[in-house]
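Give me the fold.
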Amino acid sequence: MKLSVFDWLANTSLAGGLDFFDCVEVRFKNSRKEYFRNVDKLPLQAGDVVATEANSGHDVGVVTLTGELVRMQMKKRSIDWNNEDLPRVYRKANQKDIDVWQESRKREISVQKRSRELAIALGLEMKISDVEFQGDGSKATFYYTAEGRVDFRQLIKDMARAFGIRIEMRQIGFRQEAARLGGIGSCGRELCCATWLTDFRSVSTSAARYQQLSLNPQKLAGQCGKLKCCLNFELDTYLDALKDFPKTETKLHTQRGLATCQKIDIFKRLMWYTYDESPMTWYKLSVDSVKEIIELNKEGQQIEELEEYTIINDLSSKRSSSSMGLEMKPVEEDSITRFDTPRRRKKKNNQAKKAQNRPDRASQSPEGKVSQKAENVQGQGKKQGQNPNAQKQRRGQGQQQAATEGQSQKRKPNNNKNQKRPNNNSEISKDEKN
């Protein structure tokens, strides 16, 4: 549904001698709005359901606007309010009119489905997108889209025989179809043509080229299958900004070789160039620097290389930073995960429990037993609310391990002495005997 016009003159009284404007704006299905003359000067307000004049019978709609703003809307759409043939409002709709109107609206879905089946049976290349019943239920308007002209004379006969009403066929464009049906665009908002856009201007691919957009049909096309209308919204701003840019076809002459423009950033006023010999290395230059190089080339002079004018960051160039004695570093892009919550480290107590439950070969040796006891003591200290220093524990464990190793080393020479003593005793006993 298109957005309603706000009546900012609703509470404003008319000046003396001015008559109230006798035309009203009435909305029908799918935001179709028409203007009628209030001949009987009924006290109508926005939201009233009225019965209006039609070609045959009457139609039922909702009043959306009254007063002087209706005159402005009619002037905007080039409708003459002094025309005597302007249709008029019959009356405020009574309960019988509303009941017939609601019953006919309920039939629209089934009638649309059946009409599509009849069109397919006749082999017609057309798509019936919407059906609108008149308020009294005596007539139905079928809106369809087609690439070319369609001979639907037999279709009208079949539909009149099947539905028993008068049939009117009306061809609309693909943009008008999207405006009538509505939907959600790729931006996440309702379609512009369904909410506020009334005039559909032609959109060309040059609008995408000026805005430096990739010519991808799937991204540039809307739900209607045509180019998006929003491509024209900012086109004038881009064209004004491009007037100060040098032509991208112009090549820069340097002593190292020719340089060609590969990319531009309109609003940051930046241009990227590459040497023809090494197209993989890009050099970022400002628009003013490019103009300066072009002027030097016109005078027959060549710069040594593009590195002299290359921008390291968006604020200054190499030349300006070297002259000021500053080292400018490139601006790094922010990390994608900068808003993610950091993972918490697991507590050492959990690691100690895992070490206790996990069978290990080192635990069978005396050194493993000592380290296991130290871990158990550490876990008990944490449970009691103590916070021992990790370095002291490691030193204590190292001293215990060193003590155990020293004991094992001392035991080895004692065993050797015990083996040699019997020999010495035997020699002494022999001497004593002699």
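The longest strand covers residues 58-65.
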